[in-house]
Fold this sequence. Notes:
Blueprint: H1 28-40, H2 45-48, H3 57-79, E1 91-92, E2 98-99, H4 115-131, H5 148-176, H6 180-196, H7 209-217
Antiparallel strand pairs: 1-2
Amino acid sequence: LHKPFKKVTVLRSSKTFKPKKNIPEGSHQYELLKHAEATLGSGNLRQAVMLPEGEDLNEWIAVNTVDFFNQINMLYGTITEFCTETSCSVMSAGPRYEYHWADGTNIKKPIKCSAPKYIDYLMTWVQDQLDDETLFPSKIGVPFPKNFMSVAKTILKRLFRVYAHIYHQHFDSVMQLQEEAHLNTSFKHFIFFVQEFNLIDRRELAPLQDLIEKLGSKDR
Length: 220
């Protein structure tokens, strides 16, 4: 039996939107996560996202994808009361970008829905992928599937949309809760990671392009 991995959170609200995804303590992925956290503490995010020497790229992407899911889960959990059917009747990131949900299995044709409904679909779908041992093997020696990279890219592309929605529609609430530093650090880590391994198409990042450039220019 594995003990669940508990991470200390800096958020005042410990409410997560979905249950946290735990990486089993003592596993190699747990060690990788610890390595990631230690290098993050150094403050050099460009360096922190690089593939550690001798490590498997799929495993590094898997561990970080789980971590980003947990981070976004917590960040969105702090503002769910402000993201309602009334305030966010469509899933958008500013006036120019609107997202319709489809997962290819349960919902094949994209449907227009409210942001809370969309994010619920999205986070449930991500959770199902992370819990699927054939996609995200947690046991040492079990290989990643051939389509792992394309699944990881889809997960990260969709998680980006939650950041985009929070920034465009709920940043005032984030500031009221004094969580903007936490949101910015989390998003910067996410963006540097996806840039390092070219995981999200530039067009998908357009809703937050100005912010991405601003975050990147501080590190040149």
